[in-house]
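Retro notes - structure team

What went well: the batch runner handled both jobs without manual restarts.
What didn't: labels got mixed up in the shared folder, which is why I'm recording both outputs here explicitly, each with its sequence directly above its tokens.

Job 1
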Amino acid sequence: MNDAHLPNRDAILTKWGDGTLVDALFAEYGRIWLDEESPTIGLLADLHNAGEIDLLSIITTEAVERHTGPNFFDGQHLYERLIPRITGSVREMVRVVETLRIGGGNDMAAGLHIDKFAKWCGDDPSRPAELLALIDEGFAEANGYLIIAIKNGVAVDRTLFVDRAYGFLESGTERQRWDALSALGQIGMSDEADWGRLLEALETALAANPDDTFRAYFVSSIGERLKDAPAERIDALETLAGLALSKGGEHTLHSASRLLALYPEPLSAALKARMLEKLREVDAENKGAIDLLDIALSKMVTAGQVVDVRQLAEALIRRDEGAVKLGRLDSTVRAVVENPNDALPDWVVAWLRDGDHRLCAAMDRAMFGAGRDERPLRVDFSRYGLREAEYPYLARKVVSSFFLKPVLMSSLLSSLLRTAPAEVSTEVEQVLVDPVLQNYAGSTRDLLIPISEDATDPAAPAIARAIAAQDSYLERLRAPGFVPELCPSERERQLEWERHTDSMSEAMRNARRKSIFAQIATESVILYGKRAVSWVQHAGDEPRRMETEMGSISTSFEVPRVDIVDPVGLQLMLLSFRAEARPE
């Protein structure tokens, strides 16, 4: 819809007269999402400024509560466009702004209009003082807007508003101390005296406010100040940040992770390291902090700081209580997997050498698990300075960590064979034969045969011998031919088929209950045929016939052979591999 379809002056005045204008603003007007230069926005603002309608008085708690969900945000968006263009008292404007913020609830978009209110306050030099007077008066709706008052007021009367900011920091309410701290982190410091006063006040405030929330605001304020701090003041600011971090709790950790994720540039390497060390304590239930930490770590991987990231991930995974799963750091995992350098091989080798199954299992699930195509990973093990005893040790760790991923497992063992000393190469080769090739005879051969035929590949002779051993094993396995006595009876097959059918039906029912498609689409059962026919009708058109061809979706995976005939023995072998300690 464009402005040609919008109501004119008379239509707006009619709605104002019959009391339905507020409903129109949250409904048909709001749905159009006009831009700031729209003639309709201009018309609404002109009518308000001329006193013919009042766009502020009609915004009440009751009116907002009538319009929830998308309708509310349509109306909020409209007021976001209107606020900079309409006049009114600061008292009435802040009441409207706060009513709209509360109406948005916990949605991240609930406060989008507040930036426009800040601009509105700055457009008239009298407004910051009026807003500050409302805060002094105790006007409830103005309590959350001290930062806006101080930041805009400094441009009008710097001395007054800076003094008031320090006053609130020293003796204001809890919320006012938080907001004063944030404001002092954002207003400019004009000279050395200003910086000296700020640092002294920050040190005093930190000593007087030991609570976690204040420390969180304190760390964020330091992060802001570091953006424009002179070189001689950086050490003092970072020392204060370190003091706040040292005894901070979850709110402080959230602020630290936010700085690392979104504003890392002004932070020194020492301060970043201190923040990362403190973030080892982050609560696994603190989703916001972990999500921000994930963003920060992914940026560090891109910047080449893979070792630091890996060490932090190790600490989070190894915690005895409240361990953080590697999969929750999905952006970090993606950055490692997609890194064009050696981040992934280095990570894999480091955790395999460590041998802790918690790390290896986490790596298996997060980096090579569901949703990622199995692919070979070629690693140059000569880069890691391995001792002879580590080659067969790593071969067994590869098997215990990635046993259900034959291609990955075979590619890593092939890489080991390329650089393994002759004294231990046979032991690695034996691990490739048993258990890998004795369990998998499909995708592993597709990977290994080309290697065995490549005369330039150092692993070719060993791979060729392993394939020959597999051929001999399969030949002996098939030698007895078909043995009817080993086949289940017809009744046993029927019972298994019924059990399988029942389990699949139950799985489908459970999937339907949790499926979003079941909530938005109608299910139809096709009894025969290979396509579905439906009729679609649009307003004013004849019904249109649509055909949907049916297709099939399938997948396959290899099951380890020994798991069928000796599952207990296989599991015992894997357990022994997992428990093996790194050779001294």
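Job 2
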Amino acid sequence: MRHKVTLGSVHKGSEAFIIAEHFANKEKSILYIARDDREIYALQSKLFWLLPKADILIFRSWDQIPYDNVSPSREIQSERIKTLYQLSVNKQKKIILSSVNAIIQRTVDQSFIKKNYVTIFVNQKLNFNHFIQQLISLGYQRTSVVREKTDFAIRGSIVDIFIVDRKNPLRIDFFDNNIESIYEFDRLTQKRLLKIENEKIYIHPSSELLINDETITLFRKNFREIFSNYRLSQVYNSFSESILPPGGEQFLPFFLEKMETFFNFVNDCRVIVNSQFNDLLENRIENINDFFKARKQLNDNFYLKPDQLYLSSNETNHYLSKSDLIKFSEFTDEKSKKTNIKKIPNLSSIRKEIDFDFIDKFFNIHSKLKTIIICCRSLGSLERVHNIIYENLNISLNHIKNFQEIKENINFYITTLEIDDAFELGKLIFLNEKSLFGYNFATKEKSIKNKNIFFEEINKLTKESVLVHSEYGLCRFLDIKKIGINSSFHDCVELEFADNQKLFLPVENLNYITKYSNDEDHSVLLDKLGHSHWQKRKAEAKNKIKDAAKKLIAIAAKRFQSQSYSIQFEAADYDKFVSTFPFIETDDQLSAIEDVINDFKKDIPADRLIVGDVAFGKTEVIIRAIYLAARSNLQSIVLVPTTLLSRQHFENFTKRFMPFGIKVSQISRFVPDKEKFEIYDSIKNGSTQVIVGTHALLSDKIFFKKLGLIIYDEEQKFGTQQKEKLKEIAPRAHVISLSATPIPRTLSMSLSGIRDLSLILTAPYERLSVRTFISPFD
């Protein structure tokens, strides 16, 4: 090992500052091996602020479980290839951010990197047809419209392509075999955005595994050498037919003359590893071996051994021993070298009022010899902190965008940079909102978006399915036939009623029928044409609907005439509570929260539906609503369909509300009767402010002291009468319903304005999109 140094007392979140310091003082490039992708992106954001002109590359691992029959995303594969290309051709000093999972995975060799790419620029002579073949050979997928990365489309002499390393796709306009123009365009509107003139654009492969005649021949040769019964392998047969099977990238070594490691591309770098590196390395290799053994136990023999795809711990440490190695440690001992970073305790507490006198003294003492930089999570909180400091301390903070804008004669700065804790680094002091005020401010910035929301309903009629004809009752769909009427043909739906009676319904009258169910065993009794039985059933149903509607109208009228409970909004207390949310809110979340707060300011009880996909942040909206209700001495009830969700909410709510003295109770079938009666008493006397539970909350044994907020989570799983019961009990209470798939009645009421509607359409940062694969049972 050339040189090994252990840096002591490196607390989590300060790594980027130490990396930047080493990068600025040394001539070598730096490879930092992070814990995971989350840390990689957090480091990248900080390093962009600290070193705005530095070349920062990312090298991630495949986003799949080892030995799983699911392919890694093409975006990650293309990103990896681009990074390897930059490492091969660009020898300037740079920072590379990778992870333990990524560095132990074997990858393509340098010859693959250098020969598989295309360069394009304006006025370039380039054969159009040859260019299309190159894109296909590089693994790009041809589509009708370019929407996703690694897609390309052809429209006459125009080629649209979405390259991984660009924010927007490109529109390449050919005139004969000459590139006439290149534009960036919006992938949603398909409109041109920016003309590209003096730039060379590199198109790298979208996959590390490229399928062509040469690579397939090599694959077949290597596969047959390892597996004698190769004819039984579905993977072998698929590749032989130029088809990439799900998870086929795991056979990458068979497509290349040789495999290399990531260390072959970074052999001149100084390597820095995190404090948990050894444990993460051992755990990863153990997991890989476990996944391989699981395949073997299932008698699935057509898989490569781990050493063909991954480095062992000994091999990894051997490569590290050839580098100048720095290891971060969370502690300091005699052998470690101390960093010049010192943590600073918070200047204020979340439980107390902000002590501006103490903050002023801190600023006066430290600003004489040091520079103070206040770091905010967003531009919205930056503006707010700037105003608070100026109004209370009469200090005007200088706004900077990065570290290079700091000047010697100015001591106070404010910037947008997310740090975990306050700390001192040499002559610089970095403070954040939490260290100054005891909590982080709510994110106020909100981008303006024009969103077009489309609601579609598609009825698919399958043969033998049972339909309802509005005039004649239950019938069976047979087929669509052409019927000759008055010397012309009409498409008609052939419907079968009881006793083999037939009705041919013109397709323009499809509004008369709706789907009832699939009836594969023919167990549904069909109605007879012209019989009065269907009309009697319709009349009975209409009467029941009228009775239910009268009750709903009476409850709605009572609520409309009632004055809602007053819910107070204290900005300072609310911001303290909001600071306990560990993530950045999306724009749609903020919009929904703002809608709810505006509802609370009205005199009429609100009835709001919040629609959003799973894990889009609907729960955080109701948590803040519950907090505001509890601070106004109102009780909140959260009705959920399952005991599992009830338990999950109970634990999350307790964790968030306990520091603020708000009591949460849970009622479900798993709660013992003795404990239930104790909870009933606490609800009645008001000591329990938040009640979470299943249908058990609809019990007549429960009496509320002052119910001010009713929440239905997954409201589509509750019946109308169940939902209206709580409204009848507490006509003055606000109502919030959450759903990813609202029932038609609820959605119709929201779209027609009877109920208020909030949409959460934006996924939180780092939420993985759903990728769907069709593959054999595994």
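One thing worth noting from job 2: Residues 465-547 form a domain with the Thrombin, subunit H fold (CATH 2.40.10.170).
We'll revisit the folder naming next retro.
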